[in-house]
Design goal:
With 208 residues, the protein is mostly helical. 82% of the residues lie in helices and 0% in strands. Its main location: membrane.
Length: 208
């Protein structure tokens, strides 16, 4: 079982360290609010990933390839990413200074967990990844594959993913302290454009 756990640690690191929409949103919120909002987005996304992982490892991933389920979830995910992208661009071009902005600064992590979870759950292709992971574990273990080995794989992946949440949020917090305000706005705009690009990429998969 030890080799399965180590394999899961590495796969978890590769899965989470790859730049994507979640990291873009973590970076956007982190350069504004610091460690807490960046970490909250990461943890929220991890909760969504855990849900997809359990479904994929349980062997029910094929259900989410049915258009009646996949299409609405994908459309919702696209709309969320597009909204976050437009919001990022708006805040970069027209920085807010009113009461709502002051309240956001006082509670920098508010809503970030929910956004992170929604971003993950809005991408039903994640369950396809986890269905493949279940097959890979079975191929590695052969006759020893079973619920216990899949549980070990899940534990290893979640351990690696949680560690990455701390690392990513910590690096973003360090970057925030090093950036002057104009650079923060430029980076926020770049994150907005990235989120819009990820929305378009997710939408393009509707045709596949």
């Amino acid at each position: 079982m030890a080799e399965v756990f180590v394999l899961a640690l590495w796969i978890g690191l590769l899965f989470n360290a790859t730049p994507g929409a979640v990291f873009s949103e973590s970076l956007r919120r982190g350069v504004r609010g610091g460690f807490r909002p960046a970490f909250a987005v990461q943890v929220g996304s991890l909760a969504g990933d855990a849900a997809w992982a359990l479904l994929g490892l349980a062997g029910v991933g094929a259900v989410f390839t049915v258009p009646a389920l996949r299409v609405p979830l994908t459309v919702a995910g696209c709309l969320l990413l597009a909204w976050l992208g437009v919001t990022a661009l708006r805040d970069a071009v027209f920085p807010r200074t009113g009461p709502s902005f002051q309240d956001e600064r006082a509670h920098p992590g508010r809503g970030a967990i929910t956004v992170g979870a929604a971003m993950s759950l809005g991408n039903p292709w994640n369950v396809v990844y986890w269905s493949g992971a279940a097959g890979a574990v079975s191929a590695v273990l052969g006759d020893d594959a079973g619920p216990a080995s899949l549980a070990v794989f899940f534990a290893g992946f979640m351990t690696s993913s949680l560690a990455w949440c701390f690392v990513a949020a910590g690096l973003i917090a360090v970057l925030r302290r090093a950036l002057p305000p104009p650079a923060v706005r430029v980076l926020e705009a770049a994150c907005g454009l990235a989120l819009l690009a990820f929305a378009a990429l997710l939408a393009s998969r509707l045709a596949t």
